[in-house]
Amino acid sequence: MLFPTVQFAIFFVVVFLGSWLLMQHPRPWRWFVLASSYFFYGFWDWRFTFLLAGSTLVNQFCAVRIHAARTPRARRGFLAGGIAANLAVLGFFKYYGFLVTSVTSVLESVGLRPNPPLLEIILPVGISFFTFQAMSYVIDVFREKIRPARWLDFAVYLSFFPQLVAGPIVRGHEFLPQMHPPRDPRHIDSSRAFYLIFIGLAKKIVIADFLAGHIVDRVFASPGLHSGLVVLFAVYAYAVQIYADFSAYSDIAIGVALLLGFRFPDNFNSPYAAVSITDFWRRWHMTLSRWLRDYLYIPLGGNQRGRLLTYRNLMITMLLGGLWHGANWRFVIWGGLHGLFLAVERGVVEWRQARGIAPLPDTLWLRALKRLGTFHLVCLAWVFFRADSLGTAWTVLGRIFGDFAGPATLLTPAVLVAIGVGIAAQYVPRPVVNRALSVFSRLRPALQGVVLAFVLMLIDAFGPEGVAAFIYFQF
Amino acid sequence: MTEPRRSQLIEGRRVWAAGHVLLTGLICLGLATFLNATSLLRTAERQPLGATRTVAVGIMDPLADISGVLLLDRPRRLVDRALGRYTPPAEELPVASNPVIIYPEGWDPSTTTSTTPGEQTTTTVPPDDLREITAAAPMKLWIIGDSFVELFGPALENDAADTGVMRTEVDFRFISGLVRSDYFDWPAHITQRLPAVQPDAVVVMFGGNDGQPMTRGGQQLEPDTPEWLAVYHELVGEAMDVLLTGTTRVYWVGLPIMRDDRFTQRVIGFNTVYEEEAAERPGVVYVNIFDLFKDENGQYSTYLRTESGNLLEMRMEDGAHFTWNGAYRLSGLVLETIAAEWGFTDHL
Question: Which residue in A29, A109, A121, A191 has the most chain B C-beta atoms within 10 A of its own C-beta, making it the best mutation to test that interface?
Fold first, then answer.
């Protein structure tokens, strides 16, 4: 069930009503939300719900056993078992095809002709998100940051439909405590929730889907047939498209959860306004960044074991972050580039500090230059992320750096406006948004409804027919 | 606007009770339904024939009428007009018994035309006699169809560009086909586009979405029945005839084996229709790809070996569409077929 559909609108009205009517009855409320979430997930393929239920049982079992274990060895054993089970599920569904074709290719190159079992595997939607969420829960119980939740609470946490299929990756300590005091049905931050939902719809339907259909898909399908200028703008357009698409899902998820009385962490904060790659990762997919930091980078040693090991840890974290997106060398290169950029940035800062060189003054021009440079480095990495093969990625770069002239029929005013709006939106000051929300929140509910209806009409009118799936569903 | 108490504020925003929020949401959805009624009705009508469509149209039809009476459809109409997307209702369209086609000056739809860049000369070749393809007078290939063309089209486009003697144009529509002209009217689109594209040959791939009921003479025909297949024969034949009014060759690409056995059985029926209709028209070549996507045991497989022996993922998770690897596997076959007939295999 996609967010921008009539089905979801009807589903959510029912869930909203049921959730607030049952709010004062915690147990029925939990069963109701659990059933709603499984219905939402089963709408894609009912078979996936068994995977979700299985993940719930295994992870909660491990968490409970870790908490009850009397020896450190037993605790570590259940932790390892939980992590291994999660990685096994992720590996089987997500990396099976990659492993089969890669291993076969290697064996054939040395003269063998293996006959591996060629299973027809369907990747369950959102598996990477809820698996990472479950792993964070088990690890946090092991680290004694949280106590194991009740079985029903954990089941609701893992399957909660707003963030189930594409994040944000919400931690146990952020979600579980919100379940205990019943949320007050008289105090809903509805203006912020509606803002997030409608800005998400606009970003997805008006910007992301438009750019995909009008320039990105066409150019990345046949980059060799377009001039370097068009290819360059297609890369910019993809940068805007993936931000608009992915952040749209997060915005809608956060807004929908807010209407049900839950506060989720932010997932994006104007990433293309970043002044460095380090800054970019504080603004892009923030819940994945902090997951990788807390459960991978720091356990590897973080920056506490010397300079070289810090670079190694950065590189490993970003390479695995790339692989999380899918089993493909393109994602590995994407992660590797970001790891390289982060390491170089860190190296330059340390080198300057070691020589007592003062930091550069924070002028407007220098900041603009840094933003421009960061944006282009991010775009360079996006080329590998978006291209269907390494060959296509090289062709894209070859066109940009080698053959800039040629017709530019795909660069229509509407495409340029969409790219411009997508980038300019990163620079809208928060106080401006807050002021607008404050004014909107004081309108009578009926008037709010009328305003939103006209906004919905405009989004529908500007968008293409039909709704494409969100890009991050595939991860 | 009312002034809220301090306890009703979060970061300067007024909070509301669940009942008020529900009211806001219902007014928004209700009013938006009337404002977008025409667009929603169109979407409902384009669904496959069946209970869901009947219910959706049954709900949206009267709502669209009410929206019109209350003038609530006017804002949307205004926006659509400003965006150049306004589609008048069927009753407002002029009635024409036959489509009027305006061809560019000097172009005869019964022949193939090629303009050599720089020379600005036009050579006209009889339809049965394929002209010589050279770098100076490259072949113009139009690749059309449904979502199967999404990757196959660009793959063929890329391969064709490598020959140095072909120019291509891809034109595909998701969830389109030949049985639902109310969703997308391919014959009308082809008729309209042919004079502008002026293709030497057209590569066509349809059928993925055609397995749905049709209504003829007030009677609903179910797919795979003899009556349904008889009508499908007519539709395929009509599409071929329309294409042949503006091109020399039509390469009608059949459908591949599918993961789902029932879908495969349907595909076999569709391919028979394409093959039989093509056989009746000298200008149409049926390209059989059914076996191209079978594994060594003659079964469907997501993974297939290339000629060089590499095992690659050829089909998508849906068990139907091609991956890029699959698209290039198909593109190679189609390009070889075209090059062999037009005599430029040395450019492959």
Answer: A191
